[in-house]
Amino acid sequence: MTENPARESRLLRGVHRTVTGLHPALESIVAAIVGLLIGAVLMYIWGFDPWKAYWALLRGAYGGSYEWASSLARATPLILTALTFSICVRAGMFNIGAEGQMMMGAMAAVCVALFAAPTVLHLIIGLVFAAVAGALWSVVPAILKVSRGVSEVISTIMFNWIGRWLALYLAIYVIVDRMRPEKTLTVPVTARFPILVRGTDLSASIFLAVGVALVMYFLLWHTTMGYEVRAAGLNPTAARYGGIRSKRTMIISFLLGGITAGLAGATIAMGLPPSYAIFGGGAFPELTNLGFDGMAVAMVGRNHPIGILVAALFFGGLNAGGRVMQFYGSNPVPLEMIRVVMGAIVLAMAIPELIRLFPAIKNQGERFFAVLRRRRETRSKEGKA
Amino acid sequence: MSWMDIVSLLRIALHAMVPITLTAVGEIVGETAGLFNIGLEGILLIGAFAGALGAEIGGPWVGFLVGMGVGAVIGLIFAVMSTYWKGTQMVIGIGINLFAMGFVAFGLIQLGAPGFHAVPREVQFAKWRTPMGAMSPVILLALVAPFVIHWFIKRTRAGLMLKAAGETPEAADVAGINVNRTRLLAATFGGAMAGIAGAYMSIAWIGSVTKDLSAGRGFIALATVVFSGLNPLLALLGGFIFGFFQGLAEWVKTLPSKPIPFQFVSMLPYIVTLLVVSGAIGRVRFPKALGEPYKRE
């Protein structure tokens, strides 16, 4: 560019190239830091010590093997609900219905308690039930969008609420445990995911979640169907001229999303000790918001299955660590703070090129290098003279 | 169904109409200017919480002002992020909703009772005694606001500027309209309206704050906007329809005979919303630049 490329500018270019290669990941990290900082400010305003709280959170999330197991267990359903959101984003739509689809999946999975079957078969039947229920709950908004043009943002939210009330009805009247009416029937031992680490709630359902993520990666990036879905999401008009049936890809992406959300419900019903049941009495404490948290995971994972695995580990850690943080001695910060942080992270993720939003920092850096350059020039002139 | 039943049903319906109509009217202004804010649900929730706090500090009027102010601030943040910073509007809206869910639940715990906070009766917005029973005067605001906004969009220069910013921002820019600033003002107004609606729910209607107080009303308001095709007068009608079915659900719940489980009754407003929206779409046309950040070439 310049006649005599100075050494520092070459160095800078090298750094810049590395940074742009890592750009997406870097933006997610910056967004996470911004979110955590906003959370810290709010904690400070409410009179908590943010550093103590985050320290408790960090130790509660990744401080040892028990904590790691707990974080992974929290990450499991988040991976699946995040996939729901990200598949549809890849197809150019905002499916915010993971919440309702997941609840229907959980209810369908609990239905395995109504009959007996051999060990593995029972589990598989439950998963199929959950996947079908999630897909059914997801395909109606897709059909409404294709046939009537109803925005999926509105229809999926309405289906969340309808699904929530339907699930509550089922949990209280239909598949209720007659001895303990506050919860549903308990999933029998033959249909449970085995526990991986004794004494924790990490079950083999994590393999299901990771496996589904890998399958979705393969489907979206290595098959014709996935190519069509992504093409329709990138540029619907071009895709249509390219012979892609956009209505078909919409329905396919919603079906895939519904299946993963339904499986997320199944991992709670069939893979979360000690209850292996859903509590309708407290209005689903273990299910509520998994679908919405999944959206945050999907965005930080940049809607890529592999990114989602990493992001889910982070958010699973937040959830697991948050449980420790809320009972941390003199500084008990309520668990709800975690969702505030999630919201702030999503807000930060919404801005493209977040890093460039710090023009002040950039200007300062430029000015600094300009001063360096000028000094070197004067020095070299002095040397010549 | 006796005469008294009809009157009480109508009263509940009018009260339930207010938050939906106010939010929808605000969103109509925002969408006319080209911003699609799905964070209304979150603004309603935070507005309700902030309004309740404000009312307890300085009385009902302060509560309304605080709710409106907080709503306007969130609307402004949304607008700055989606205009000057070119953010994705859907994602920002989702972020606002997540943030609000966490923030209000967190705040309720800090106030002492997780998940529930009652607003003392003496700081609630007084209801008027009418032949129909106790009615909140805010209903009048919801009845008048659509007409004012309709006049504003159709008959004033500023309203045309709004339309231009949403329809063809390039042309508006050439005509000397500051597109981003216009959108900023529109979205701030939309946020303020949702904030008022939230404050109304906590201090003039329900009288308490819960963590799912908004209960999808922000999205029902979005559905109302779709149904109305950006016509505030139709938003009034739509708000009344949705309010009526919410009122019906509330009314059936109070019946002593319990003809159907209340879970099914509670689904009613959402099912009706879906039906109305899927019936209404097709004739509706939205601004061309809706949801797109404006970038000058």
Task: Write a compact overview of the structure shown.
The complex is a heterodimer of chains A (385) and B (297). Chain A has 385 residues and is mainly alpha-helical.
Architecture blueprint of SSEs:
The complex is a heterodimer of chains A (385) and B (297).
Chain A: H1 7-21, H2 23-45, H3 50-62, H4 65-90, H5 98-110, H6 119-148, H7 152-174, H8 205-222, H9 224-234, H10 236-241, H11 246-271, H12 290-300, H13 305-325, H14 336-350, H15 359-384
Helix pairs in contact in A: 2-14, 3-4, 3-13, 4-8, 4-11, 4-12, 4-13, 5-6, 5-7, 5-11, 5-12, 6-7, 6-11, 8-9, 8-11, 8-13, 9-11, 12-13, 12-14, 13-14
Chain B: H1 3-32, H2 40-58, H3 60-83, H4 89-110, E1 116-118, E2 128-130, E3 133-135, H5 138-155, H6 157-167, H7 169-174, H8 179-205, E4 208-210, H9 217-228, H10 232-254, H11 262-280
Antiparallel strand pairs in B: 1-4, 2-3
Rg of Cα set of chain A: 24 Å
> How do the helices and strands follow one another from N- to C-terminus of chain B?
HHHHEEEHHHHEHHH
Radius of gyration of chain B (Å): 19 Å
Low-confidence stretches of chain A: none
Decide which structural class fits the backbone of chain A. mainly alpha
Task: Sum up the structure in keywords.
heterodimer; A: 385 residues; mainly alpha; 72% helix; B: 297 residues; ABC transporter involved in vitamin B12 uptake, BtuC; two-stranded antiparallel sheet; 4% strand; globular
Task: Please give a structural write-up.
- The complex is a heterodimer of chains A (385) and B (297).
- Chain A is an all-alpha fold and 385 residues long.
- Chain A has a domain at 75-307.
- Chain A contains 15 helices and no strands.
- In chain A, helix 12 (290-300) packs across helix 13.
- The two termini of chain A are 27 Å apart.
- The mean pLDDT of chain A is 84.
- Chain B has 297 residues and is mainly alpha-helical.
- Chain B has a single domain (6-124, 136-280), classed as ABC transporter involved in vitamin B12 uptake, BtuC.
- Chain B contains eleven helices and four strands, in the order ααααβββααααβααα.
- Chain B has helices spanning 3-32, 40-58, 60-83, 89-110, 138-155, 157-167, 169-174, 179-205, 217-228, 232-254, 262-280, and strands at residues 116-118, 128-130, 133-135, 208-210.
- The radius of gyration of chain B is 19 Å and the shape is globular.
- The termini of chain B are far apart.
- The chains are: A mainly alpha (385), B mainly alpha (297).
